[in-house]
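Archive transcription. Copying these from loose printouts into the bound notebook so they stop getting lost. Printout 1 of 2:
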Amino acid sequence: MTEIDKRNLKNYLYCTFGITYIVWGLLAMFTQSHILGLETIIGRTLHIVGALGPAIASGFYLKSNNIKFKHFLFNKIENSSIYFIIHLLAILILFSVSSLELNEVSIYLMPLFFIQLIFFGGGHEEFGWRGILQPLLDKKYTYWQSNLIVGSIWGIWHLPLWFIVGESHQGFPFILFFIYTLFLSFVLGLLYRQTKSVGYCILFHAFANLLNLYFVLKINLIFIIIFIGYLIYTILASNRISKEGKEFVSKITGYTLENEGDFVQGNKVEITNI
């Protein structure tokens, strides 16, 4: 990781947490003081603005680094859609098989909810988490380390929601939510590695939140078995990607790479730290 990367990482995190914590902090104070409610126009506006922190910070990052938005969002590895479909099916099985009970939400509104979740309900966060944070951390840390860091930052970023009166996240213990974000960090981290697509990560994040909206989440034996199996798959698959990448670089250069971050940008190979 270069000094420029370190500066970009710090600036992104400062901007993301600055926007979100200031706005959601104000909303928490307003709702707890009964100055205004979450369901008011001002309350909803503050809630949305705070949620857009990662996306807004991403916009500043792209502009300062002269990265074209179209390339950033739609870039992907050839024939990577199969991995996207596999992950969609896996997360669907995780929710549906472990819980056959549905929330009382109209299925006819599913397309509208999905679109809303892409832009304001979680999907947009992937501009930052997998689009910026993950690639920067992958330059220095291993798969395990970078995903744990991203997942921890992602979980902590949500913390103010537990102080906003009437916010839906309060119905779920923060520690369990934090564990869930760590799990999804491994899943989305693998999806990004397999596809190099921020767009796919946005759609997957929104789809996972859509399932959480429709299914009554039950942490039972079936859920735990599928959860652990899916997590093991992400670890094994990512280790295979890392091993193949190192072997490829060693084959064409004669160098042996010690760190996962010594290579990778899709099919393009970069040699650093040699």
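Printout 2 of 2:
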Amino acid sequence: MAEQHYRVVIAYKGRDYFGWQYLGDAGEKPTVQFEILKALRKISKYETCQVAGASRTDAGVHALGQVAKLTTPLQIAPDKLQTGMNSLLPRDIRMVACARCAPGFNPNREAISKTYRYYFTIDVLCAPLLGDLVAHVPLATSKGGVGACGIQSMEAACDVFVGEHNFSSFSVRDVSGRSPIRTVASLELFKTPEAGFGEGVYCFEIKGNGFLKYMVRYIVGSLFEVGRQNIGAAAIQAALAQPQPEKLSAKAKAKGLHLIKIDYERLALQR
């Protein structure tokens, strides 16, 4: 039977997973890719299947718009595949879109940009309902609270990251030898528009042509240090201009990071 190929969009809450990437059938460290593959195998009557994702999100990171390609020998309509998969997937993983795609579609290589948001609150107390999705980042320092001043400082420093730079100082070394040069198209800070998050929650939104391991979290971590008045924008500029062995900050916690959207120049879809 000829293989069937589907382009799907996946949303998930990453709290209970060791990231996206498949780590083996044992399931001792559950991942999102493993759960999707397990469900697809069951629907396909345990024939050989494949799941390829566009972004390898870290442990604890969430997604609204992860894109993946599913390959199965099963001939099934996209809407029925979506319904069947959602009936088998854990409640914190959902397939939100499904369409046929060309056999050669590669969700990672063909992506032209990825958009992440990092949600955080600077309130003294973080609402319990937000605990899994929003990072609690008090900006108080030994110099006293900085509040709105810290937000303004971080907002101004966002512009330093925009453009093509060597992000070695804001990532971990890539053993595969990939170039550390990346282009950040935009980086903005604003109060969250999501009604369910309530007042006092902010987010960084960053869009780029690709991101190195932990890159977004190190960028956000350094901006938090700007907000605490521990470093200035000049320190970030220096780290971008000349890679440094020491990080400017710890990486921001995983739980505030959400993969929002992956863009493609043209969608290799089939009716």
